[in-house]
């Protein structure tokens, strides 16, 4: 490394200087700047969405600060360590999920929280990272494309935590877990034929899922199918959200001028529905800019994936990128009414610390993969 | 071996992942395109729809009630005002179980049965989302108690509101009328936007007639409301235009004096300023407290008022129909002179009765032994029936009807209050229509002394005598002196002149008026008893007695004693019309005292007050029996 720096300095001293700094602290500059940009945009929207509640904003700044610290920390750990410890992380995650079932703290009608005295946290958040890490490390040892035995084992590895999370019940996190695990499988080269048959099987099981659903989830689904069903209760969220976005128009009503959120017509405007606030106040332009920043992160993630040096790194980088994409797509889809309402926050923008720390830890792993590459390959 | 395969696989795996990444990227781009299409649909295609929906969400047009105009008398004495009260209101649409709410509220704020019954009544005919007052005029303690418990009653609220109040209460109830809550029938007539914030409307009297002026124009507040419908801030407001204040022609002191003079007796007093037609006092007794109606009268109270035998709700001044009785005589005398059917010097001999040529039936004079030889002046002064029987017969009914018509009888006076009835001028064609029988000569005889079918209202009596005072000039009687828009100078209302009574010879006014003045000066005069001794002003007028119960055969003792024997409800009404002073008439008055003989005495008190001032009124006690008898004619 030292050699490389000395060698490259002769070509473009200034550029190499900065690059070496980022590399030294194991941060990917592009990803980092895009994330900073996104969090700043998030704070701007949150300030308005929270009706200029500065204490809420301070809290969110603390969340972001903590999340960046976690990211920095995770970026320092070489990918090999993740690969080695993934199985333990997964094991601990499963134990914690089981303990939630028995000692969990109920919040909003679902047992998701584990109370550790001063800290309350959701073990399912750990699983969001532990599951793809474990799968990737598992596949790393296998030959790709995978054989059937491997696939069955992988499905089991995905379904165990997913079912435990469903039991909490937290379907949206379970869905994200399945996406995280599934994306590893997909990147590992699961054949298209198998993919489509698995997809078909899932469709067949969908009616069965109805029986396992909680009442509120059934209502959400019915509402999605027919939004005008019950405008004052069940469909209220989505109708108000569409009004907020639609009334924003091309340029939006202007920052702090959104009537839908400021007058509390829009529910959960600081958390799950924060994208509607953006749509109302910054319009179509604002939404496009936000989506673009998300896509910059996605593209950088894919770049890191393709340039990763080993199978584990590729699989985990790809999985983290895909999961990030799906969590923001599901949120935007839900807020704009093309997906049923489920409790998925807009990553890095919605108010809340728990999911942000997990996401940033994921970005830390991505950066670790990018910055711990052997220089020969660059 | 394994290592070798791993290295081989390594390149293949790179390729595989790269392919998958590209596939993933394509899927992601498709999904993003879908998302952007959706955003475009919502924000560009359907933008207008959602803007409308958004505005509907947060913009609320809240109407604000204009302050109702005040009503003053001619001297600026307040007759109708708006006083602030705290009321407990219920919005029925916010709670399905109203009776439960009433029970629960009753535990905090005592409600009586009347309030509950009144509430239930209004519940049936209220406008949607209208607040119905459950209890008006809460005490401070009740307000405080309610606020402590307000969270339990989302459908109830305390409202500070202005309600109509009539400080002089019953004295002006018939003239002013009152306001009450808008009912379903009125809802169909009123302008729904102008009344969108208004709960009360004039029901009767001036309050009803001048409703449009008093009401004002509704204002609006464009308010930003939050999701719970509570206004957050006012964006724009159009202030309501308060209603116009009305200054009435009435003199509240005179009105009070007139009310006191009637002393609770059923009857009516109308006082007019002859030169303008302005009504100075208009009293109908008995009366009622209009404030009862504002808060919503209980059905018990209402029934009591409605079923009372002396009919307090009945406005006698405009709707009471009384025979003109002897007060018809001045008009007939005037017509007799002007049509050449009589002269001031023409005399008849009155034996106490009149007989039509070739008929046997005798028409008795009120004075059993007759008045002897009488000319026109004497006939009017002592109210000689026989003279007018003969004159009426000679003139015929058409000339009688003609003069009554010209003086405004038998038709609406057009007073700015509505409600009045036209009365009746009896004619052959009227009789055929109303009674289905032909006109007899006897009908003309009876009409000549105002005892037949002729009927008029006290207002018409007053207007008639005012016209006499004006020597034929007529003005529409009216109650509105000036109107005043808030912050603007008052706009005086000019008097409306009606078609005057024109005579062929204007000297005839003098002859008749001199006779009417003699009524009070001559000791033969029927007004002498109450006026003759110490009149500080000149006066011309006529007394009358309207028969309620026809006495076929009169005995020698005279009528008054006979009347005493009758039950009160069948006794004759006492009528009195006059104006004063004679040469410069400032006041014309008509008094009806039902089942009584006291109309002249009542009028004296009012005239004295108006013409002399508020000095203690000295009523001269009548000493002679003859005077008493005269006084009632």
Task: Give structural notes.
The complex is a heterodimer of chains A (378) and B (633). Chain A is mostly helical and 378 residues long. Chain A has one domain (2-377). Helix content of chain A is 72%, strand content 3%. Chain A is built from 15 helices and three strands. Chain A has helices spanning 2-9, 13-24, 29-49, 54-76, 79-103, 123-141, 148-166, 171-187, 192-212, 215-225, 236-248, 259-262, 274-307, 311-336, 354-371, and strands spanning 105-107, 110-116, 119-121. Chain A has a three-stranded antiparallel β-sheet. In chain A, a hairpin with a 2-residue loop joins strand 2 (110-116) and strand 3. In chain A, helix 5 (79-103) crosses helix 6 and helix 6 packs antiparallel against helix 7. Mean pLDDT of chain A is 83; it is low at 1-10. Chain B is α+β, with helices and mostly antiparallel strands and 633 residues long. Chain B has two domains: 61-248, Penicillin-binding protein 2a (Domain 2), CATH 3.90.1310; 252-288 and 321-631, Beta-lactamase (3-Layer(aba) Sandwich), CATH 3.40.710. Chain B is 39% helix and 20% strand. Chain B contains 25 helices and 25 strands. In chain B, strands 2, 3, 4, 5, 10, 20 and 21 form a seven-stranded mixed β-sheet that branches. Chain B has a five-stranded antiparallel β-sheet with strand order 12-11-25-24-23, with helices on both faces. In chain B, a hairpin with a 6-residue loop joins strand 20 and strand 21 (491-492). Chain B is elongated and about 155 Å long. Chain B starts with a helix and ends with a helix. At the A-B interface, helix 8, helix 11, helix 13 and helix 14 of A face helix 1 and helix 2 of B.
